[in-house]
């Protein structure tokens, strides 16, 4: 019996030793031939380490606490000591919820030129309104967000600031599936081995940030243990990449207008339940080659306006206030960048100022 136990123990130890040797050899080979920093050298990382990007909504969470990276979506005011979750008396607080247009992309200085900041200046420099001594505008935004992601940000961040009004900025790609937003990709089609699946375009798997690169998490191990394994083992990073490539969804629909409208309906329900007025503002792209206020997407614009009317949301469209939407195209070195310049965002701010004052006056009456 003792001999059998010794033999069994010996075989177990031998198996463990063999596994360790094989793993060590695999680790050495992977470090020689698999370099994630080269594989993903077209990606500029904009998220901190210890971050996981959720595959279902494309938003960034802290891997340990499992909470949203709030500072990422509140970059305009998260470091401002004057902004407190508890509103000061006499303050009328507006949340602007959106994507890169709300961030002010296309301008020289997003902290001065975005429509949110211009709107706040207009409201605070205008005619005094009884009971209001100060207007506060808090942009909650990030590039590429869609309506579903904005719904989550409303629920998990915006409502905690007790807003008096919510402005939802909407654009054409809000109907797309959630994108992950951890970096900016130059090109995927030109990758040398042909296995460069769309990290930036769609969020179909979890990602973990490591050493200024991002890698897909090990399937079913997108937790603290999985992060530690990927942090220290290049071989496991190789395995994770290959597994995710094998398990990836081959085809992801580009648009999902029904999901966008369902999220819009939920946003409307939440704001009505909280007695918070809601404004929706459509920002069509300002293109070099196409007119997004023309016949190109006329049916989409019509559907969007009809949905807003059905939900009784106060609705504005830049197409109604700019004769040539492409004339307000912002600073860019890429034809695909379709944001506005300072003047374009200024037009939006002026429209919104009148809309906000109308809402306040109705409330006073």
Name of the CATH class of the largest domain: Alpha Beta
Examine the secondary-structure arrangement and name the CATH architecture of the largest domain.
3-Layer(aba) Sandwich
Q: Roughly what percent helix? A: 25-40%
How is the CATH topology of the largest domain named?
Rossmann fold
Strand order of the largest sheet: 5-4-6-10-11
Which structural class do the helices and strands define?
A: alpha/beta
The gross shape turns out to be: elongated
Secondary-structure element order, N to C: HHEEEHEHHHEHEEEEHHHEHEH
Number of helices: 12
Radius of gyration from CA coordinates: 25 Å
**How many beta-strand segments?**
11
Describe this structure in words.
Helices cover 40% and strands 14% of the residues. The strands form 3 sheets. The protein has a 5-stranded parallel β-sheet, with helices on both faces. Strands 3-2-8-9 form a 4-stranded antiparallel β-sheet. Helix 6 (115-125) packs across helix 12 and helix 8 (224-232) packs across helix 9 (234-247). It has helices spanning 2-33, 36-39, 70-73, 100-103, 110-113, 115-125, 147-156, 224-232, 234-247, 257-273, 298-310, 342-364, and strands at residues 43-45, 51-53, 60-62, 91-98, 134-141, 165-170, 183-185, 207-210, 213-216, 278-282, 314-317. Strand 8 (207-210) and strand 9 form a beta hairpin. The chain contains 12 helices and 11 strands. It has 365 residues and is of the alpha/beta class. The chain has 2 domains: 14-64 and 179-247, no CATH class; 76-176 and 255-364, Rossmann fold (3-Layer(aba) Sandwich). It is elongated.
């Amino acid at each position: 019996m003792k001999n059998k136990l010794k033999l069994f123990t010996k075989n177990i130890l031998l198996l463990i030793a063999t596994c360790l040797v094989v793993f060590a050899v695999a680790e050495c080979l992977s470090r020689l031939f698999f370099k994630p920093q080269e594989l993903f050298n077209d990606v500029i990382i904009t998220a901190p380490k210890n971050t996981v990007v959720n595959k279902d909504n494309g938003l960034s969470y802290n891997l340990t606490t499992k909470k949203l990276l709030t500072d990422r979506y509140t970059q305009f005011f998260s470091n401002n000591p004057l902004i407190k979750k508890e509103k000061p008396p006499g303050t009328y607080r507006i949340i602007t919820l959106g994507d890169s247009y709300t961030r002010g992309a296309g301008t020289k200085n997003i902290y001065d030129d975005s429509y949110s900041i211009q709107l706040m200046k207009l409201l605070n420099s205008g005619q005094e309104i009884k009971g209001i001594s100060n207007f506060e505008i808090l942009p909650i935004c990030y590039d590429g967000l869609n309506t579903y992601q904005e719904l989550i940000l409303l629920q998990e961040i915006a409502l905690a600031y007790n807003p008096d009004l919510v402005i939802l900025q909407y654009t054409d790609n809000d109907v797309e599936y959630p994108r992950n937003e951890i970096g900016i990709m130059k090109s995927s089609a030109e990758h040398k081995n042909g296995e460069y699946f769309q990290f930036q375009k769609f969020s179909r798997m979890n990602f973990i940030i490591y050493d200024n690169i991002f890698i897909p998490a090990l399937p079913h191990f997108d937790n603290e243990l999985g992060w530690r394994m990927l942090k220290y083992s290049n071989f496991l990073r190789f395995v994770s990449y290959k597994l995710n490539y094998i398990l990836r969804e081959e085809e992801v629909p580009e648009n999902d207008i029904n999901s966008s409208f369902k999220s819009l309906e939920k946003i409307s329900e939440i704001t009505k339940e909280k007695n918070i007025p809601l404004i929706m503002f459509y920002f069509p792209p300002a293109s070099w080659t196409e007119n997004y206020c023309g016949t190109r997407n006329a049916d989409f614009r019509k559907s969007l306006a009809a949905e807003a009317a059905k939900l009784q949301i106060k609705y504005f469209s830049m197409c109604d206030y700019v004769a040539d939407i492409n004339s307000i195209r912002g600073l860019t070195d890429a034809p695909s960048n379709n944001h506005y310049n300072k003047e374009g965002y200024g037009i939006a701010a002026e429209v919104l100022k009148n809309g906000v004052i109308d809402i306040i006056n109705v409330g006073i009456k």
